[in-house]
Amino acid sequence: MTAVRTGPEVAARVAADQLRALPGEPEALACDIDWAGPVERELPDEQAVQAACGIMHVHGRAAGRPRRLGVDYASTLAGVLAAQGVLAASLARARGARFSSVRTSVAEAALLSVQQYLAVATTDDDWVETWQAGGRPPFTSRDGVRFELEVLHAEGWLRFWAELGADSGAVADGWWPFQQRFATAAANLPEALHRALREVDYGTVASVAASAGVSVLPVRDDPAPPAAVPACAFRALPGTARFAQRRGVAPLDGIVVVESTRRIQGPLVGHLLRMLGAEVVRVEPPGGDAMRGVPPMSGDCSARFRALNDGKRTVELDVKSPSGRRELCELVADADAFVHNWAPGKAAQLALDAGDLARVSPGLVYAWSSGWEPLRWPEPPVGTDFLVQAHSGLAAAVQSADEPSAPSLMTLTDVLGGAVSAMGVLAALLHRQRTGEGVRVDSSLFSSAGVVPRPPRRSVLDQPLRTSDGFAVLSGTDPARLAAALGTAPDTVPERLRQRPSGFWAAELSEVETVVTPVCTDLRQLAADPRFAAALGRDTHAFPLAPWEFS
Q: Which GO terms describe its molecular function (predicted)?
């Protein structure tokens, strides 16, 4: 059994729990997780990592100031990355490699979680992204129900608000920030839209939404998930694999993955597998993925798109046409794994479900990354990040004790969902290597949300505190001892810290073993900081390097 030898408690526990639950029987490897990894900063805990690596900045955009995520998100993601590393090294050993250990860090996980925001901030394009704090969902109905709303097309947005009698100018003004909240982590919607929903009961909202093709869900105040589900579900597929020959030094060298994915969750699966050495063939519609042209540009392609898709080989085909499906089957016939995040039912409709492709490629690993599996709904809502946070309890867990439940507008489950799916693919590939059996892997945004431990809701002192030149977080000292060192009462510590810059407090409080971490509020400065040089690469934008070391 793999030993997680060192590491933050949450990350080590997540890695161990996931490895126990997965098939494939990982090798007895040594696995080390630390806080900072190659980042040359003293980062003693989760809040220091969130502060230094941009998570507090991105999560806090909607509020207009950096905010801590109330869960140990970076540690959770690091645990999943560690499990991926163990599975990848085990697969490589089964194919003749001699890896004995794997290492990753919470800081590298944090940088991976903000990679799209980092790409946008550091691109050479003159286009400037803007966002405004405030005005964000959730909405509140007349009968006091707080709820999230999702619609992916402007037609549904217009029909919904028109039926509720909302001001047409506010409806038009609100569409852009609503649509862009996945990209900007902010959504300053006109007050008129919030007011329109405060004037009707939730039952009316739900009825109008259903007729307009809009999804709404109440925001749960209980942080615990409403159902306990495994991160990934596995089912055997027929056929015997033809094992890929290992050609290079990376763990997945010689493995071929075909993906047909969009947005964040699906492309991230292939991105992680590519960083582990797999050849990833990306299937796009004729003319290419429309997201390639979304500004800002990095070189001749969207910075956001490149953050998740650089290094993949692209093939354009129309899966809705018979000839396009034949082409896809030809690609899959020579592949080890196929990954998609199509809408529920689409694979069966196209005759490209697991059973169909297993006949084309015996021993195939077939992975579907969805929104809600394995939950069953009479009328399923669209499976997107913020609805999943609302229903899974994560929206309650990420906010501090003095704040109402609300999803983070940072795409938490999209990123974690992609990482969980990649972990499932690796486990299935290892099982196939050992048995020759093909495997279907099902995971979802909802199942990934359940991987995040739910601690007690945090107090105000766990949030970034304002100093005279920005914000900082304090690690290592209990509140009473800290207050004594500052010569003040515990409840006036925040006011005392405002009087001096972060650097002053870092020197002053080191005598009481308190680590002061200034909060990153500009991702461009983070990318330019030489202390991050070993964790980041640079092309026409900055990007995180592979977050594993194998030896």
A: transferase activity
